[in-house]
Amino acid sequence: MVGSGSKAGLPGRKTREKIWYYWSEMKERGELIEKLKRVAREHPKRGVDLIVHLAKPPSEAVALLEERGVKIRHRYSLMKAVAVEISAQEALRLEKETWVTRIEEDREVHILREKEE
User: Fold this and answer.
1) CA 81 to CA 99: how far, in whole Å?
2) Does residue 98 carry a pLDDT above 80?
3) In angstroms, how far is CA 103 from the centroid of its own chain?
């Protein structure tokens, strides 16, 4: 209702966080796809390190990945994902598979802890 002062229907903090996460994830995906296209064009045989998130258990997906010549670097136990070394061309094809939920660069991540006052 307009002018009622009611906050019903307004997005809460959780909704905004989900929207931001979705937007940032889509932005990152677009940047990664462009980067993979560039690497595939300029260095077709160069391998790239990725994390592949899966819709099926990793044990089922590993065989499919290995058939494609993908090197499995790590199998994650807390999430349905594997770290792989793969050609950029194959990564672009893999990204379109229905059993792949997303791909991301496998890179070093640092966590900083703020001091409590």
Assistant:
1) 11
2) yes
3) 4
